[in-house]
Amino acid sequence: RNMARGEKIRLFYAPDRPRTGGSVTLNANVIAQSGEPVRDGVVIAQIAAPSGRTTSLRLTAAGEEAWGLFSGSFIPTEPGDHQIRLTSADAGEALDTVLSVQ
Questions:
Q1: Contact in structure between 73 and 23 (CB atoms under 8 Å)
Q2: Residue 22 and residue 6: Cα distance in Å, rounded?
């Protein structure tokens, strides 16, 4: 769950084993290109379900005390692998990952 050197975005989610019909919270730590945690930037999650249906979710800043932390939630309606792409102009990069939903 730690960022590797040079990475600007880290994603973690809850619960660890998402299920269809249950809420999934996406959390992202975002570091600006300057090296400081982003305070109130825009972080977008593009979520592609196994059927190909794509949803866009804007993660919101967690507050002044949690610089660089952004959160948002969605409810998956299909089981299987969901492709997630997180983007942030402040970080200047994107993160691609797979979320398996049971």
A1: yes
A2: 34
88: helix, strand or coil = strand
For residue 9, give the H/E element and its range: strand 9-14
CA-to-CA distance for 71 and 32, rounded, in angstroms? 17
Question: Over the Cα atoms of the chain, what is R_g?
Answer: 13
Distance CA 8, CA 91 (A): 6
Residues 40 and 6: their CA atoms lie apart, in Å, by 21
Closest CA to 79 of 24, 38, 11, 7: 24
Predicted confidence (pLDDT) per residue in 61-99, tens digit: 987 778 899 999 999 999 999 999 999 999 999 999 999
Beta-bridge partner residues of 26 = 13, 72
